[in-house]
Queue: 2 jobs
Job 1
Amino acid sequence: MSAPNKDFSVAIVGGGLVGALNAVYFAARGWNVTVFELREDIRTLKQAGGRSINLALSKRGISALDGADAGAGLFETLIPMSGRMIHIGGKQSSQNYGYFGEAINSVDRKLVNEHLLNKLQKMPNVTIKFLHELLSIDYEKKILNFKKSDGTVYKAQADLIIGADGSYSRVRRELMRVTRMNFSQEYIEHGYVELNMPPSEKGEYQMDPGHLHIWPRQTFMMIALPNIDKSFTMTLFMPWKNFDAIKTPQDLLGFFEDKFADSIPLIGRELLVKDYFKNPKGSLVSIKCKPYHYKSSCLIIGDAAHAMVPFYGQGMNCGFEDCLVLDEILTKHIGKPGTASSTKPTAEALGKAFEEYSATRNADAEAMCDLAMYNYVEMRSSVTKLSYKLKKSFEGFLHRLFPTSVIPLYTMVSFSRIPYSKALSISKKRGQWYDFFGRVAVYGTVVTALGVGAAVGLRNGGLKYVHGFMCRK
Amino acid sequence: MSAPNKDFSVAIVGGGLVGALNAVYFAARGWNVTVFELREDIRTLKQAGGRSINLALSKRGISALDGADAGAGLFETLIPMSGRMIHIGGKQSSQNYGYFGEAINSVDRKLVNEHLLNKLQKMPNVTIKFLHELLSIDYEKKILNFKKSDGTVYKAQADLIIGADGSYSRVRRELMRVTRMNFSQEYIEHGYVELNMPPSEKGEYQMDPGHLHIWPRQTFMMIALPNIDKSFTMTLFMPWKNFDAIKTPQDLLGFFEDKFADSIPLIGRELLVKDYFKNPKGSLVSIKCKPYHYKSSCLIIGDAAHAMVPFYGQGMNCGFEDCLVLDEILTKHIGKPGTASSTKPTAEALGKAFEEYSATRNADAEAMCDLAMYNYVEMRSSVTKLSYKLKKSFEGFLHRLFPTSVIPLYTMVSFSRIPYSKALSISKKRGQWYDFFGRVAVYGTVVTALGVGAAVGLRNGGLKYVHGFMCRK
């Protein structure tokens, strides 16, 4: 059992993206931080298993990295994608994400994680312990029980416990034993598999790396994001029943020839078959819960608090922003890093900070979970429709005219730090206005047509009839 | 480790109400049934802790007990309650539940459980093991690991595992590891505490035992159900913040004098204070999940599958009906008890039966969870409103005229076996008709009034004006 520290001690369960970034923030407050990670050190692995290979980093994630002064050395590896490239019928058409050249950025998940772990390792008040599986938490005594890789139990004591241990969080499970936590998990009917499009023989990208490529096919879709080695990582999302129907390489090639013909020569038949059958098929879950904390003892962040489907590219960004928002709220309640009240915070002040975080962040995270769910329909289907393109053009026109007052939803989510819940409600309200104007336009047309019709009718006989009726006497 | 049995073996986790009744059904199929219960034998306890003392048994529960031939000896203890007795301003007014003398029945939870355990103990192919805490399940090997009271691990093997282990089901938790289970749990903002109203000095009921008594107070309420010892068990439901505000006996008595004055002399000040501060305060949770099964290996029933708030008195009834519905579906897929196909069912037939059960029962159980949530508003608030009473009278009038075609919602839920989901959808549709007729009545009145007004107006000058205009030339 680690000796209780005179300093303020924090146990962060989970050394993935969010846990590692949060450790940087907490270490900057002078706290004695220990990160416990279930898996082995990702830096010793060739490729992390069972997780998506690349991610889209946008405004919120960048702001959070900046806030922890953790961007340098990482930002240089980003590949900006300024829009979607829609693949239909062998043709490609581009749709910009922003209206002023904004881009989201393809980045390697493993590289981000390694970058943050490297940064942590240089901080004197941070310890990282790999291969520590959380078994249970005693919240009253603030003791965490871990199983080490040799099977022995390791007990750790901490003033504060952070759960950054992902969708299937053990910290959350333990939290549910001591709080009345509302919780929901919803699997969508779609799974995914990752494929690879290698560089060309000349070592170049085989498609434009400045776009996120989408093959929208209504009920399913494939996407591709560029990697720095000039390859693309492609993800095929489709209902489980479609996966079940593909049993042989012939099934697979037939399916691709029918649906994604233009991608076959770029991927190569052999690699396509190999990757499809070798790579794990992942499920997609949306998780919401409330509250995120227990007194001043524990707080969950990232996927542990709000797992979302990946269709808005906000999972990492939202998790990183959690760390930034938490830091902002902590500063409000216990003061800036470096002050005495921050270095050794009182339980009362921490409790209040967590209460505020839990309440405000929950609304935002759940809004983002919903937006991510809606965006699946947009990506695989709406983007192909004229009404969608017209609405987007109209909104873009207004946005260019009034850049700060009419901001498209995608821009609010990906290129601003407007709280997710506010972005969602603005967008909903705007949708009602569009509907209203649309209806006014239709009604106006109908009423005008009727008016003209009536006038013509009246002139051609109606007046005579009325006159005859009225003037009979 | 228990030796694999040549017979078809079933492990039922949970020896509460639903687990015990289901064991009776399964034993009747000749299966080798072992019931594992976490707690000690309820028959050795004076009072089971932390659970409601009495429950309302109605049609579905009675049918399920009848279906297992498990009613005799229990039905004699039932206390029929034909309606609600509403306590407002010190006065009582009765509202019947049914329109043909139907009643729900107050029954002692402990007595029901003991009755079923006694019945099980007489069946040769049933074993009951108390103080067995489920640790984990290996679904592929069909092995259950239990911790016994002496701390040792007990391994059991079974062809089929039934989870009847309540709201915080371990079987469900293990099921979530092998299935993509959608799951939600929602705590309501209200807690409850049980109180006791003893018999009078003469040993009689102090209120009418033929009613379920309610003190509706809009945001909270108290209810009372009669017990066979002539006492009433009262349950006070209110927001947690109200519980938090009552810190002293003076706070409690002040609150009761203000809100439930008529109950104080019947309970007695001393007992009220004693019970309120001694008895545990319980939370109320609504749990939904899907699917309920894993292949032919495992199925969850009762609260483990669908915990509901207690405001429709359907928790036990729905759980009991689970057993009956499951038996009906099993008979459809594997044959009647006694047939060879039922005694030793194939995995394929069982799997299909569970798939059907999971799909149909889920819709019904979730409908019931929703109905239970709606009924909280009805019980604590709607029952006091004129519009509610008018609607109820009107519906009762129609029901008396057309007893089989217009059935009030409460009657469908409590006095019929119409599937819950159907009852809910019929009731929703009917609500739309009521709204429609209401609107037609309002519109009719308005249009008539406008018509009369226009006719009068036209007669008093309008015609002259039109005539002047038309005949000017």
Job 2
Amino acid sequence: MRVGIPVEARPAERRVAGLPETVTTLIGAGLAVDVQAGAGRHAHASDAAYRAAGANTIPDHPAGQSDVVVSVQPPTVEQATALREGDITISFLQPNAERELVDVLVANKVTAFSLDLLPRVTRAQSVDALSSQALVAGYRAVVEAVNRLPKFLPMFTTAAGTIPPAKVLVLGAGVAGLQAIATARRLGAVVEAYDVRAAARDEVRSLGARFLELDLETQQGVYAEAQSETFLERQRELIAERVAASDVVISTAAIPGRKAPVLVTTDMLKAMAPGSVVVDLAAESGGNVTASSPGEETWVGEVLVYGARNMPSSMPVHASRLYARNVANLLMMMTKDGRVEPDLTDEVLAGCCLTHAGELRRELP
Amino acid sequence: MRVGIPVEARPAERRVAGLPETVTTLIGAGLAVDVQAGAGRHAHASDAAYRAAGANTIPDHPAGQSDVVVSVQPPTVEQATALREGDITISFLQPNAERELVDVLVANKVTAFSLDLLPRVTRAQSVDALSSQALVAGYRAVVEAVNRLPKFLPMFTTAAGTIPPAKVLVLGAGVAGLQAIATARRLGAVVEAYDVRAAARDEVRSLGARFLELDLETQQGVYAEAQSETFLERQRELIAERVAASDVVISTAAIPGRKAPVLVTTDMLKAMAPGSVVVDLAAESGGNVTASSPGEETWVGEVLVYGARNMPSSMPVHASRLYARNVANLLMMMTKDGRVEPDLTDEVLAGCCLTHAGELRRELP
């Protein structure tokens, strides 16, 4: 059976779903690999490098030619139309945002796996592309902030006096938030972090950051929007106070499948020191910062707000390496004797299978 | 006596020679301070903040109004023409590049100090603006590289496998080079460094980097251009080999008052892995990298070369803070009882005084 790696369909996407190293893995499992010419361009993987790993270069999108098509962004409706009954696609596919595409996949009896739907179980870790890409996003958020900050992050003691370390506030301590904390700490910043999940406290502290706590008993593990008005009021007060004291704020609070919670208001930004920088990693899902807009820099007084857009794509070599390995690991879970035949009774595969044999396997809202 | 802080004359200059905190210092020494409206704009110091520190806001350039004019870039010829006999200017003034300006300063009997000419003696450390700005440049060089690199700097061990740490090569281990080494090390890179001065070895090693050595006895303390052809040949071989093995190269080798040595050729760049990044801090003084051009990104195959231009200016808050303190310290060396009266028998002041009482105090080539 043949696995196809296309040029990504969306123009701003610089990652690729397979690299020469994962081509080697797939060929070792008895599969053949088709790579669309130029697929690895932004990830600096040449057609020649794919061929050296044993892949076949093809001029067009592999839909209709390869049995399995792996990509970062989901296929377009046109590409999906070319998929045949029983063909498999693997990508980040958010069904709520792609109704027409889902209809085509169902109609064509395509088996579609979405890495957005992966169950959070131990066996899925090596396949967990949301986490691997969040790692990249958290690191990049700090790079984007540091690049825009007119100040140092580390402390300096010089003959002309001392420069104190920058103060960095990270909102949300999931994978991206923890990586942002770790990166800012590496660079010598004083870091504090907030998360509604009290369980994040030990992880935050283990990275050398201060964990902010509300003086309020709250229900553990429940997202902010689900909390009481008193809780939200206290949270606003705490965040407002800490935002005002920070040189950099990095917000990473996302609620899967829903609009991101607003945590930082324009009034809070106005209390920051001039020259401060805010990076909103949640800008694409509505924003944690009211002033942020995806891919844009917005000045609020003398505070610069950067709304992140597809951060992992800005580091295509390593983001692709992690993603391609996640995809190869998922393929290995469904491949036996050179055939890709997913067992949909498997917890991981069932969890991320969106369409199969003409059926939509998830309820859409 | 009055000290004037102008808006910088060159459009790309974002630093400022005085900040509210140094205004306080000057006023404490019995001086008055005039600040041109908007002077601190890029450094996020408002006119109101200067006034709160006791400064007087003026609408125009202070030349002809203040007795002492402090700036980052030298005054323009027009501004210098407005300076009166006995007025003082302090700036980075490279006399070889500013012949017409020097003529005006001599003709007008202005006392001009250049921070480019400061003697490298212990007493001058608190005034050493070349070093304080090189510190900023070295840090920023890493930020510029990391921002353009499609890879992580740190090592990551993830469920999808390990990402090895990036390899960073720093050429030149002066103040900027050492700071680049320190910053890349903070971010988890594996760093190696080269400098013609064997004396740099211990400093490089103390920062956790490997010091590259030629298997050749060389005359210590002599710059590369002054060395033998055999030395240069060995140096080229060593650098070519290490450039090819690096993900990031940061070159910082400058020879005061002369063209920077070419260390990295286009052929060397072609041997680097695709996606590698080179930052040439010496781009403005001729370049350590043949392909670099100041302020430009140049692709050599799949290697991105960034020619730095005025790096300190890209971090105006802290670059200005260090520079303003250097300038205030220099002013304090020449101020007694509220009067700025430089004693030109003082080693530090004599060293950096370029023109005085109608005389040019340096031989120009």
